[in-house]
Automatic annotation (TrEMBL):
It holds the Pfam family PhoLip_ATPase_C. ATP binds at residues 59, 101, 125, 169, 249-251, 368, 374, 397-398. Residues 1-50, 297-324 are annotated as: Disordered. It comes from Mustela putorius furo. This is Phospholipid-transporting ATPase. The keyword Glycoprotein does not apply. Its main location: endoplasmic reticulum. Belongs to the cation transport ATPase (P-type) (TC 3.A.3) family. Type IV subfamily.
Length: 761
């Protein structure tokens, strides 16, 4: 199958299996259509068992639809195509040349020799906006035929508009008859372009454009891509989580808007602004008009007039507007921008104005966007706004966007594996993105933040024991602990518990995180790793090191113990303090945690006993010989270790208790839900939402937000669409449409248009 050329939308170059669908409803069709389709590999002898393999499910849908019209593709080789017609029987078309699809031309063509007329025929399919411009203005066969073509063109355009309003992906089909001399001349020039060393791509483009002109319109197609299961729910959850969603697609404007409504990216009450201009000046004026209207209705404006001292939104880098964390106001707004207008908006002089406009909108739909424009949009937001960008797509046209984003996600399926191979993460369906971000993203952020803080704490607390000892040894660098113990303390005795914590820590259950996507905002706000949290942790480490050093020091003051005998209770108490500190910070202790903690403590005492007995480093007058054995027979040693540990951890324990009971955060409240029964949990969630415990923040430009029952949040870019090709057909007045009919579940093919998401933090 050649490249699928839905309007401005590029399809991947891969292979996929398309199982046989059941018989489809038959309707009238133009017999020239299947000839223009470059499609599947040879099938089985019987039509009832004939199956196709296609690079794109859309290609397979068209071929299956043609078969429903009794126009069956029988076989396909590099040299010829065999098609069975109801009235003409089996015809073999000689395949002369193929011009593959590319995002610049937005079309593809095939050159064949017709078996009946022996004429060279060029069949072209592509975006309607492109094909319509390539149609012949005048007909050599007379005015009557020219008038007929104009009628067909007008009707086809009406059908295209109707298909687009219904959310179908539209294509136009056209043809051109060439003489043998014309084709030979073109083929000679095309061969020179193919063999050229310099400027080969430009020459090939010019050669294709010389062939694809003065076309005769045959009709149009419409293919329905159904949303995957769970797509609207996933997008709604992501918006509640504080992720602003943009849709970047190659579909035409009407189709893109229809799909945006279907997946709940846009809602019925949204005020929609369409930016569709053909010049830079018009684009700038229209953006200024829209932005002015949105800013005039900004509810924050009235509040700031009443309270001039109210803080302004944080200023982003390079003076560009930061995407607001949430939008909760009287009116929601959506922006639809076409590929031509997007080309102007991405120019440096309009970038600031474009970003200010998008910051005022709940959702943005970029239609007719090329792969290059998709990547430029992601790069623009990533470089000029204080946000993290996530791009997700399933086709080769999404690869550049996925690679430019901070996080790239590829959806596997019959669209090929290019997006998956270029991505950081691969998922099977779009609905899994919710769990990837809301659950694993939240867990990962919490684990990393707490682990960073813990490693700072652990090293500061232990190293400061040596620092305090320097005041009593004249800063000579002497250590009160054997060097082997110093080396193994981080390497062996305290290494396993943090690793288990970083792997298994779950502050909130996955079920609760999915039910309360707003909890994801805690990561966007960096609540787990704030500067204040960092300095409190360091102060706590200094305090614990003071207690760990001076309690044993004053306990053994005036005794006759040597240096290593003094250092042994310090190391033991430090080990207990550091490990129990991690226990206090853990939210989900399991038997694995307990086993690892017990193993760490056992390894320390085992090493100390064996090391003291063997006396590996016995250097008089002070050596570690038999120190642990003597201390384990001394009750004072146990008293010192217990008292030191309790005094050192008391502030941390008290802080966590007060924080969880008197000043609980939304995450802390959600932890209590995990302890409830299912019935209590359901009731608690209802009360939680009614009380608005998750909190709301005003938007930066709130004409576009609605005071609806559910919080809608924005903080980035994304374009979520997941669909399935559904090859059933209907033809009206020379226009060909593919609609949904009941198919076997195995035949349904998931598809996702490119998208990009951004999130603060």
């Amino acid at each position: 199958v050649e490249e699928e050329t839905s309007p401005g939308s590029e399809r991947p170059q891969g292979s996929g299996d398309s199982p046989c669908p059941p018989d489809m409803e038959k309707q009238n069709s133009d017999p020239g259509l299947p000839e223009g389709e470059t499609a599947p590999s040879p099938g089985q002898p019987s039509t009832s068992t004939l199956c196709y393999e296609a690079e794109s499910p859309d290609e397979a849908a068209l071929v299956y639809a043609a078969r429903a019209y009794q126009c069956t593709l029988r076989s396909r080789t590099p040299e010829q195509v065999v098609v069975d017609f109801a009235a003409l029987g089996s015809l073999t078309f000689q395949l002369l040349h193929i011009l593959p699809f590319d995002s610049v031309r937005k079309r593809m063509s095939v050159v064949v020799r017709h078996p009946l007329s022996n004429q060279v025929v060029v069949y072209t399919k592509g975006a309607d906006s492109v094909i319509m411009e390539l149609l012949s203005v005048a007909s050599p066969d007379g005015a009557s035929l020219e008038k007929q073509q104009m009628i067909i063109r007008e009707k086809t355009q009406k059908h295209l508009d109707d298909y687009a309003r219904r959310g179908l992906r539209t294509l136009c089909i056209a043809k051109k008859v060439m003489s043998d001399a014309e084709y030979a001349e073109w083929l000679r020039n095309h061969f020179l372009a193919e063999t050229s060393i310099d400027h080969r791509e430009e020459l090939l483009l010019e050669s294709a454009m010389r062939l694809e002109n003065k076309l005769t319109l045959l009709g149009a197609t419409g293919i329905e891509d159904r949303l995957q299961e769970g797509v609207p729910e996933s997008i709604e959850a992501l918006q509640k989580a504080g992720i602003k969603i943009w849709m970047l697609t190659g579909d035409k404007q009407e189709t893109a808007v229809n799909i945006a409504y279907a997946c709940k990216l846009l809602e019925a009450g949204d005020k929609l602004f369409i930016l569709n201009t053909q010049s830079k000046d018009a684009c700038e004026r229209l953006m200024s008009t829209i932005l002015k209207e949105l800013q005039e209705k900004n509810p924050l404006k009235e509040l700031q007039e009443k309270n001039p001292a109210s803080p302004e939104p944080p200023s982003p880098r390079e003076g560009l507007p930061r995407l607001p964390a949430t939008q909760d106001s009287r009116l929601r707004a959506g922006l639809v921008i076409t590929g031509k207008a997007l080309e102007f908006a991405l120019q440096e002089s309009l970038q600031r104005q474009f970003l200010e406009l998008t910051a005022c909108c709940q959702a943005v739909v970029c239609c007719r966007a090329t792969p290059l424009q998709k990547s430029e949009v992601v790069k623009l937001v990533r470089n000029h706004l204080r946000v993290m960008t996530l791009a997700i797509g399933d086709g080769a046209n999404d690869v550049s966007m996925i690679q430019v984003a901070d996080i790239g996600i590829g959806i596997s399926g019959q669209e090929g594996m290019q997006a998956v191979m270029a991505s950081d993460f691969a998922i099977a369906q779009f609905k899994h993105l919710g769990k990837l971000l809301l659950v694993h993203g939240h867990w990962c952020y919490t684990r990393l933040s707490n682990m960073i803080l813990y490693f700072f704490y652990k090293n500061v607390a232990y190293v400061n024991l040596l620092f305090w000892y320097q005041f009593f040894c004249g800063f000579s660098g002497t250590s009160m602990t054997d060097y082997w113990v110093l080396i193994l303390f981080n390497l062996l005795f305290t290494s396993a518990p943090p690793v288990i914590y970083g792997v298994l820590e779950k502050d909130v259950s996955a079920e609760t995180l999915l039910q309360l996507p707003e909890l994801y905002k805690s990561g966007q706000k960096s609540e787990a790793y704030l500067p204040l949290t960092f300095w409190i942790t360091l102060l706590d480490a200094f305090y614990q090191s003071l207690v760990c050093f001076f309690v044993p020091y004053y306990t053994y003051q005036g005794s006759d113990i040597d240096i290593f005998a003094f250092g042994n209770p310090l190391n033991t108490a430090a080990l207990f303090i550091i490990i129990l500190h991690l226990v206090i910070e853990s939210k989900s202790l399991t038997w694995i945690h307990m086993l690892v903690i017990a193993g760490s403590l056992s390894s320390y005492f085992f090493f100390a006993l064996v090391f003291g007995a063997l006396c590996v480093t016995c250097n008089p007058p002070s050596n570690p010989y038999w120190i642990m054995q003597e201390h384990m027979l001394d009750p004072v040693f146990y008293l010192v270790c217990v008292l030191t540990t309790c005094i050192a951890l008391l502030p941390r324990f008290t802080y966590r208790v007060l924080q969880g009971s008197l000043f609980p955060s939304p995450v802390r409240r959600a932890q209590h839900l995990d302890r409830l029964t299912p019935e209590e949990r359901t009731e608690a969630l209802k009360k939680w939402r009614r009380a608005g415990m998750l909190g709301r923040a005003p938007s930066q430009c709130a004409d576009h937000s609605a005071a609806k029952s559910e919080e809608r949040a924005t903080s980035g870019l994304s374009a979520p669409l997941a669909m399935m090709s559904a090859p059933s057909c209907a033809v009206e007045q020379g226009s060909f449409s593919v609609h949904e009919t009941p198919l076997d579940s195995d035949f349904c093919e998931t598809k996702t248009s490119g998208m990009v998401g951004t999130s603060e933090g």
